[in-house]
Amino acid sequence: MAQQPIVYDINKDLVDQLVGLTPGSQTFDVRHKRDKVAAATQGSYDALFDPALPGLSLADRLLVALYATRITPSPLLAAHYRARAVEAGAAAADIAVAESGKPADAANPQLAAVLEFTRKLIEKPVEGDEAALKTLPAAGVSTPAVVTLSQLIAFLSYQTRLVAGLVAMKAAEGQGAGSAAAEATAVINPGNTEPGDVIKAHGFTNEVLEWKAWLDVVNVDTATPEQIAVLEESHPKAKVSDYYLFLVHQPEILRQRSTAFNAIMYAPGGMSRAERELGATVVSRVNGCVYCASVHAQRFEQLAKRNDVIGQVFEDPITAGTTKREQAVGKFSIQITEAQADVNAASIQALKDVGLNEGEILDLLHSDAIFAWANRLMLNLGEPVLVTV
After folding, report:
1. Phi-psi region of 375 (alpha: psi -120 to 50; beta: other; left: phi over 0)
2. Using CA atoms, how far apart are residues 250 and 252, in angstroms rounded to an integer?
3. SS3 of 153, please?
4. Model confidence at 349, in pLDDT bands (50, 70, 90)?
5. pTM of the entire structure?
6. Contact, 199 vs 311, CB < 8 A?
7. Among 95, 182, 213, 250, which residue is least crowded by beta carbons within 10 Å?
8. Domains and CATH numbers, the chain
9. 1 pLDDT band (50/70/90 cuts)?
């Protein structure tokens, strides 16, 4: 059965409520200039926790959310998901397991497998390999439910970083740009690659890759009208992409995710599209996602007409950046990826000091956070394949 259409109500926006954003405040107003992203973020939450969604029960999905936000950690979201798990009738023993961080203690073997898979994807997504994925069908989790679980964990990775970044932006309201902002775009660390060069370092490349799913994808010839509609909305090549054909097992979840992604990466104004791609590439390098790093390295070069900083990111993301501005973008992207709980007003001020305004900071936060989501899907559902001519 198709999920019911999701209607966005700004007065019920969960992220606004948790962060304490209210109309008229600087961070609220900046956030809602990207209202399509806010709506799709809420829409993803609503779709993933729809009580009518088949497969994993609502209680189990909320236990996954509680566990994931406990170990991330994100206290604001963990408290929210604990309250929702109790309200949904989750067993007290299962809630205790989710809060303890010990999946093996779950009495239900399927829940134990689901939480262990969650742990790998939250703590070290590169460990979400084929063997990890196939523990789920072995535990009786259907393919559509695997899609739900994977999207849920990936969404939570996005949501926790979004909330952490917005809390920091709120704390930094009123702080101005630093005196070095005008000098931030001068080249201080030139790279050694030229446009068109093939870059390879530490297993990463800017070569063209394909991606193959490890489980069954939807057959376009037998797809439902809703699945076809979502594929057509998502990407021009979605009908021939294993990635989209696998995720469309749950079409409404994919619809909301695609809407968020497209609004984040392609919306006009704000941070340049090239810098958004740079943030995406840094996050993908840090998370170990070879496929995403390749795709977004190529997009950066297409937009910026250079790839010098890409060679630096592949070699060592910590020191990457040809300018102070690029270095600040890289450092923030690493922090929100590896230590989102440490992101604070000083993290935001460091971006302002190299000339980013609030709207650009939000765009960077969005692009970093959406790749916490994208990387986990690419890493846990399939593998990259080199395109041979």
Report:
1. alpha
2. 6
3. helix
4. very high
5. 0.96
6. yes
7. 182
8. 10-170 (1.20.1290.10), 183-386 (1.20.1290.10)
9. very low
